[in-house]
Specification:
- By secondary structure, the chain is mostly helical.
- The chain is built from 4 helices and 2 strands; from the N terminus they run H-H-H-H-E-E.
- The protein starts with a helix and ends in a 14-residue tail after the last strand.
- It has one domain.
- A two-stranded antiparallel sheet has the order 1-2.
Amino acid sequence: MKHKGLALWLTLSVLICPFSFSAETTEDAALPQATPSKPPDLLSELRNQDSVFSILIEAFRQVQGRVIQTDYEALIKAANALDDLKTRRRIVVLANQERDLRVKKLYHQLGNLCTTYDTTRRDDEHLANVKVPVNIDTGHAAKTLMDYVFIAPAADDKTGEKKTQTIPASAYLLDTLPDPVE
């Protein structure tokens, strides 16, 4: 359940938080006008958006991968507890199929997110009248994510004081999915 809450939070942040401003706005005062005297700021802003997007989609991929793998391992464990060999094998086959479908769906979602980001970024480039090569580096983002820690509530002590603990990112993130059980 802990993983699903984190996954939900990441999913909502992907869907709700805008990565950049759209070219179409109803309030002209809401966006500062791009001036030709500040192109380095616009360039660095687009590069920063690439870095943030890289980390966001990599975190989404890894958290969802962890959820998929955890569910898969639970199914395999339940299958191994069965006495009937034929039923056990059938459940393992079904678990493998479910895992494969969920991984395909995940990569389809990631593709949709990348397409949406690319379209929005092109709009930003057009609005700013600059061309900056897209640099989405999920490999670097994966290394950066492993430096992060999660802050979670710890068990209350006898004094009733609320405590927190840090948990390494590797407890929630899964860089590569292991091979399925045969």
